[in-house]
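Sorry to interrupt, but I need a hand with the structure work. Could you write out one complete protein record for me, on any chain you like? Could you add the entry underneath, on a fresh line?
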Amino acid sequence: MIRCPCPKCGFCLLQNREDAFDHLVINPFPSTYTFWIHHGERCGVERSCDGQEDQSEQHFNGPMLDMVHGAFNFSGLPGPEEDSENEHDGGAMDELPYLYNEPSRETRNFHDLLEDGEQELYPGCSKFSKLSFLVRLYHIKSMCGVSDKAFGMILELLADAFEHARIPSTVHDAKKVIRKLGLTYKKIDACPNDCMLYQGNDQELTKCKQCGTSRWKHKTKKNSRVRIKMVVKKNSKPQAVKILHYFPLIPRLQRLYMSSKTAVDMMWHKRGHNSDGMYRHPRDAKVWKSFDVRYPDFSRDPRSVRLALTSDGFNPFGNMSSKYSIWPVVLIPYNIPPWICMKPTSFILSMIIAGPKMPENDIDVYLEPLINELKQLWRGVEIYDAVEKKTFKMHAALMWTISDFSGLENLSGWNTYGGRAYPACNLDAETNSLIHSQKWCFMGHRRFLNHDHKYRKDRYSFDGKIEDRGPSIRVSGRDIIRQLEGVHVQFGKVQSITGKRTRGQQTPMQDKTSWKKRSIFFELPYWENNELRHNLNVMHIEKNVCDNIVFTIMNEKGKSKDHIKARRDLQSMGIKHDLW
């Protein structure tokens, strides 16, 4: 990688030889660049400055400038020799902004951050720069859950108390500086009925292709005899009814390897193999090892990233008093140590937020940008490794999802409300219809016990029968694809004749379909061969089971499962005569 001298990169971005050659074919080599200080040419003039002064300047400049260079694909800061070369050459770095008439946005952001990182917080301050102080403030805001209103009041107080300090006076000004570091999110307009996203070839559409609903917000024109709906505009731009906030995955993976500190953590799962056979990390599981055997090219490089997707109400706002209730989809890596992974706010790689709550069955519509990135990551993406000091082709794979039982239907497409809701048995599930309680009951769990277990012959404690069946056969991804043949799903909110949504109004007794949809994850080339595609969050299951047992034992009114309908169901099944 070299610092590309083309007008677009402006010596600030690193490119490989082929890309730099292509850039220079289109844009000429700068005529003023005669001394190659950015490409290894040495001057030999020693720096004549006080070493103590250099040490004090580096105290606040070093970490912040390292962060800025890492954010803009720089391998490191120039050393003292390179600084002296710049001075000897008449300030080539100072001439850099004048080499081109219109520097790119990345170049402008880079120089703005360099200026903020080198600017003292106040005259004579050697501990903090303008950028380092703001980053520390923003870090406290994020870790302690300080609201924007409180943070703005703190900034206003600091600006009034310390007039000579270079402190932003508003939250907007502070965010403008932080935003230049990158890792922002994308806004993608969505259909109000969750039918489609306005992206790609559909980016310029004004109405949904499926339901015909307008993309824009409307308001009624005042003082008009005829009721006219007008498009709501802000800064002369129409406002969308529903917007998807998507945090891209690839730039965040690149940033993890561009920083020397986090790049070391991304290699943790290959260090210190577990030799005692205990399950401490997903790397010890059979699923992880079988994936390595099936895809040796992927597992050969320890820098390949394994991801998990969770959609269980993760709140990115922490414990702040925020009224915005969301249901996001979050991606976290498994390469990092488990003690860091237990704090997912530190290693969130991607997030999808769609309105007040993620739709129940149309989540695949909003997963489309993520799936496109996962396909690209499976093929490989060029990333700079700050530890190895060179670029490599990084690959990433989604190992599985994590959700509660209701979220399992949204992600996998399996119907968790019907008579075959038990996912482990698939179509081989033994179901009992409780007529009086209007629920489904699953009584065949003894088939998973050993053949000589005493519970297999216990008629009275269970369903009055002897269990002699073996465990159900594990269903492969190919079997699931075969079952999904002919399953047609139309995304979007289905409207009934009365204008009310029909979703959620069907009772479990009426819903007999096994599959609701074909999951969008099957578009990933490796998803079919994954032995474990979906995980259930044990916390929710244990809590619900514990609540039901405790409330039944204590005969909690309205929450106990021992009620008149349950007694009648026992009688209709012909078991537990003493409880009729």
